[in-house]
Specification:
about 150 residues; mainly beta; 4-stranded antiparallel beta sheet; 3-stranded antiparallel beta sheet; 7 strands; elongated
Length: about 150
């Protein structure tokens, strides 16, 4: 059986990575490369005999903001949203805007039905159901003796 998600095995603990990024000392990248300012959403992966269930935390988005694609055994999830706020008073006019985006990719095992993957967004959680193919034999774990 293949694996759906990989662990982030960095040196820094998860909380520090969430706040400062993977490398807290890479100040040049933080301030001068805005295209790298994309969030990686937290994910839960649940497996049972029939399917994988993928839950991604993505509050503040709408259904129409998401793009879910499968290509070459890779499941890619991304979303972009523009936030605008305008305020006009007697002596001034204020206009603010910002962009939010997330992106995450998963390597799919060989025993999934890529054409039957389904996604739903509800209450800030994107739920992706990835059905398994019953015809592929599940290889159980076994020990191999070294000779």
């Amino acid at each position: 059986m293949g694996t759906l998600a990989k662990r982030n095995g960095g040196f820094w603990p998860k909380m520090i990575q969430d706040f400062f990024g993977a490398d807290p000392f890479a100040w040049d990248e933080k301030f001068w490369l805005p295209e790298k300012a994309m969030e990686v959403p937290s994910a839960n992966v649940i497996e049972n005999d029939k399917e994988f269930k993928l839950e991604l935390s993505a509050p503040g988005f709408d259904k129409k903001d998401f793009k879910v694609e499968v290509s070459g055994g890779i499941l890619s999830v991304s979303a972009e949203k523009e936030h605008k706020k305008e305020e006009e008073k007697e002596n001034y006019r204020k206009k603010e805007f910002s962009y939010s985006s997330i992106r995450r990719s998963f390597s799919l095992p060989e025993n999934v039905l890529e054409n039957k993957i389904d996604a739903k967004y509800d209450n800030g959680i994107l739920k992706v159901l990835i059905p398994k193919n019953d015809k592929v034999e599940n290889t159980s774990k076994r020990a191999i003796t070294v000779g």
